Known about the structure:
This protein is mainly α and 187 residues long. It contains six helices and four strands; from the N terminus they run E-H-H-H-E-H-H-E-E-H.
Amino acid sequence: MANAMEKGLFLEDLRAKIQENGEAVTLFQALTLAQLQWQLEPKEWNILQCFDHLNLTHDYYTPKIEGALAAPQPASKRDVYEPSFWGRIYMYFSFNPKYSFPAAAEIAPDTAVPLDTTTFSHYLARQETFLDFLERVAEVDLTHTRIPIARGVRFNLGDCLKILAYHDALHIGQARRVLASAREHNV
Length: 187
């Protein structure tokens, strides 16, 4: 059984990642709008677009998670999280720095729409929803509660939760790199 993790440890890891992601927002909230909207290249995302992408990603997954929680599989005696086949593949490619993929249209920020600092308050509200999910899954089987993601692709509930937390961290890292580049360019 590869990559199985005791559920309590798994949820604690996610809580810690959510806390870390939320704390990062404080750094960005202190920046000027010029810094938040700065881009090295027109096709690269600025800091606000990174967070808008995270908001759109949460908006995509939240109804799917809500649907799964409406009729979950009860927790088993084993009570572990183990990635699904598709979840394992998705996480391998998504979280590996060697690979970079364009965002799907439904979760890509609209680069023609100017964003402002309300993007951060929207993100923090989604983090509260995410923390609520972690409380609600205490008696749910994270491995056997399945969520349809795309045609022919199903993740388990644990996959979705892990993907959200770690995907957020990935793009917060991207936003930090944008900030470092902006500072190098005296923005």
